[in-house]
């Protein structure tokens, strides 16, 4: 069987199906942690790794890596993905008018939110993407996710796992102009490795790490307007980085983009092909729409690009993704 190329120029743009299938089969982790596994590469992030990561907190400074969850978000309604709708159930006005029915002058406020779970900063769970009818670990997709939700790899199963060593790879600063990569820029394996070398020892990437890749796409959206941020052109990882994602044995990866991989995708007829390799075959948890700008400024200032990253999903039973407010502590 031929080896998948790591050179984007060598991709056969007319053969998405064959190229994707080759990478899926080459970088497949099915059975690696047993037939009943539900965590995929999060198995690399064990207690020892978490204990080691706790030692990275020196100054005590904390960065939220989340976008806001409100009606001003990036979503345009594609496949019924909308921005959050926040509604008040009880307000101060109700309390002032005495209409809440509480005794001895007590008043209060209460609210509700309705939103797709992947409308802003979020994790993709292992039940989010399938490969030719199969889900993570070789299970039939229809046996995993039904109208009742993800019955096998629901996001609640990893609610305590996503805390450990985070590493920022600021590709926007390393390879871009003004800290930003242009839309359609495909980040290669060589560039990931070169960025690590340039940033120094604190950027080493290995087993059990959670890697954050900054492209600068969110910074541009904030400056110029959303302008297709959700689903439109963007810098991102090249399809040819699948081997790097597999070999490094990272636990998870997240970016400041809507879709993690470069858009437009690198084939004439394709949709998110790297997702098809990474999630159901490698078993990789992927984060999207993270806000990495303030963290990147701090990392550049102090020369340290690793930190304790705490990013647990909400334990929503049967969900294939979850909103998250990731915290980087340095």
From TrEMBL:
It is an enzyme of class 3 (hydrolase). The keyword Oxidoreductase does not apply. Coiled coil: none annotated. Signal peptide: none annotated. Its EC number is 3.5.-.-. SUPFAM superfamilies: Putative cyclase. GO terms for molecular function: hydrolase activity. The keyword Methyltransferase does not apply. Transmembrane segments: none annotated. Keywords: Hydrolase. This is Cyclase family protein. The lineage of its organism: Bacteria, Pseudomonadati, Pseudomonadota, Gammaproteobacteria, Lysobacterales.
């Amino acid at each position: 069987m031929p080896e998948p190329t790591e050179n984007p120029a060598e991709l056969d743009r007319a053969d998405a199906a064959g190229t994707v299938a080759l990478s899926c089969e080459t970088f497949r982790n099915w059975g690696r942690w047993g037939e009943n596994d539900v965590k995929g590469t999060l198995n690399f992030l064990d207690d020892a790794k978490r204990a080691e990561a706790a030692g990275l907190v020196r100054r005590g400074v904390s960065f939220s890596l989340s976008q806001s969850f409100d009606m001003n978000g990036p979503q345009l309604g594609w496949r019924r993905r909308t921005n959050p709708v926040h509604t008040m159930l009880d307000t101060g006005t109700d309390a002032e008018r005495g209409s809440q029915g509480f005794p001895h002058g007590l008043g209060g406020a209460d609210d509700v939110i309705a939103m797709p779970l992947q409308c802003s900063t979020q994790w993709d769970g292992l039940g989010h993407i399938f490969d030719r009818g199969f889900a993570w670990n070789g299970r039939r997709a229809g046996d995993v996710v039904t109208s009742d939700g993800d019955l096998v790899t629901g996001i609640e199963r990893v609610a305590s796992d996503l805390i450990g060593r985070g590493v920022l790879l600021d590709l926007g600063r390393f390879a871009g102009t003004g800290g930003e990569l242009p839309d359609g820029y495909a980040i290669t394996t060589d560039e990931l490795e070169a960025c690590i070398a340039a940033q120094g020892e604190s950027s080493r990437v290995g087993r059990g790490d959670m890697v954050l890749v900054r492209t600068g796409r969110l910074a541009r959206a904030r400056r110029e307007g959303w302008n297709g941020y959700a689903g439109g052109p963007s810098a991102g990882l090249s399809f040819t980085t699948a081997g790097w994602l597999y070999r490094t044995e990272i636990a998870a990866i997240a970016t400041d983009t809507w879709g993690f991989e470069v858009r437009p995708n690198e084939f004439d007829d394709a949709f998110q092909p790297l997702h098809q390799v990474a999630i159901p075959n490698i078993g990789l948890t992927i984060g999207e729409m993270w806000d990495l700008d303030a963290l990147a400024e701090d990392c550049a200032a102090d020369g340290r690009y690793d930190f304790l990253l705490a990013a647990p999903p909400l334990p929503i039973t049967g969900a294939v993704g979850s909103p998250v407010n990731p915290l980087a502590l340095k």
